[in-house]
Amino acid sequence: QVQLVESGGGLVQPGGSLRLSCAASGIIFSAFNMGWYRQAPGKQREPVATITAGSITNYADSVKGRFTISRDNAKKTVYLHMSSLKSEDTAVYYCKAEWGVNYWGQGTQVTVSS
Description:
Layout: E1 3-7, E2 10-12, E3 18-25, E4 33-39, E5 46-51, E6 57-59, E7 67-72, E8 77-82, E9 91-98, E10 102-104, E11 108-112
């Protein structure tokens, strides 16, 4: 059974930082491309950052220079370090694993507000 479990979300003030984690089980983690996506209220889900099995990263323009995606294959975990957070970063953040098929986590809420 495949499971992706996100954690690390919460309430943070503008300019603050958070680190999201996504722990995977039931997959050959090192073979999967991993990604973080987000969905704000009333908006479509959008890609935030992706990292391939070979650790090539890609970022949405809106988060470049502020967010960093990384992976630890030994821990079967992908991370999203977010800094200089803005109110427009408020969303539910989802983890995705992709290798021919897609698996999604349940999401974790990130709220940026003073």
